[in-house]
Amino acid sequence: MNPALPQLTVQNLWKVYPYGDYRVEALKGVSFEVAKGEMISIMGPSGCGKTTLLNCVSGLDTIDQGSIRIDGVEQTELKSRSRDAYRAGHMGFVFQAYNLIPVLTAAENVELPLLSLGMKPKLAREKALEALSRVGLHDRSGHLPSELSGGQQQRVAIARAIVNQPLIVWADEPTGALDSRTTTMVMDLIEHLNRTEKITFIIVTHNPDVAQYSHRTLFMDSGHVIQNRANRGRSV
């Protein structure tokens, strides 16, 4: 990718949900850009469209109108199967609830996306252990989620998100289930990965302390981006 071009360009994005005889406009002409290696936070009141925006731009949900271009690829022109394959091969996801499979070890959870892409098990395990090392959990690779703390489980989820060397990691309230001390530890890790490995992170959060880790914060209300504010002390 040309470093002078945005890694993500969203233009005039609309999402409408039918609700009986009514139509709920969840996103109303949203536009923004993200450079490679940026960390962006999305904030706003409940119901303003934050998670809808993340789901639509990442391809987890469809859109009604607009353009989403990631690394030069127009996502709206991809067929459903191709869009799913692009997402699996080029994106990572972190959620509030961790979404780890309870009967699988940390290493098995992390290698799962690679196995689903057809990678050979031996190589997938090597890459999973490498990713766990990057988040400081190599010594917990054989533990089940129930044997890990909440912060450790989220670090496993982050390892799973970065194991395929994604273009972008999408994080929906990644610290929502954590206490303040563990939140700081997890966000320090995300900031480290963003700064040292230039992984692009887009984070939905209600926590202003989390948003301060980002280069910029997009503030939403009623389906609109109402403010795009740079955060002090951070530059790409």
Any chance you could write out the topology, listing elements then pairs?
Layout: E1 8-19, E2 22-34, E3 39-43, H1 50-58, E4 65-70, E5 73-74, H2 80-90, E6 91-95, H3 106-116, H4 121-134, H5 150-162, E7 168-172, H6 180-197, E8 200-204, H7 208-211, E9 216-221, E10 224-230
Parallel strand pairs: 3-8, 3-9, 6-7, 7-8
Antiparallel strand pairs: 1-2, 1-4, 4-5, 9-10
Helix pairs in contact: 3-4, 3-5, 4-5, 5-6
N- to C-terminal distance: 16 Å
Q: Secondary-structure element sequence?
A: EEEHEEHEHHHEHEHEE
CATH topology: Rossmann fold
Total DSSP E strands: 10
- The radius of gyration computed from the alpha-carbon positions, rounded to a whole number of angstroms, is 18 Å
Low-confidence stretches: none
**Structural class by secondary-structure content:** alpha/beta
How many independent structural domains? 1
The helix content is 25-40%
CATH architecture: 3-Layer(aba) Sandwich
Mean pLDDT: 94
Specify the CATH homologous superfamily: P-loop containing nucleotide triphosphate hydrolases
What is the makeup of the main sheet? 6 strands, mixed
Principal-axes shape call: globular
Number of helices: 7
- State the name of the first-level CATH class: Alpha Beta
In order across it, which strands form the biggest sheet? 6-7-8-3-9-10
Strand content: 25-35%
Could you walk me through the main structural features you see in this protein, from its secondary elements to its overall organization?
- This protein is an alpha/beta fold and 236 residues long.
- The chain contains 7 helices and 10 strands.
- A 6-stranded mixed sheet has the order 6-7-8-3-9-10, sandwiched between helices.
- Strand 4 and strand 5 form a beta hairpin.
- The protein starts with 7 loop residues before the first strand and ends in a 6-residue tail after the last strand.
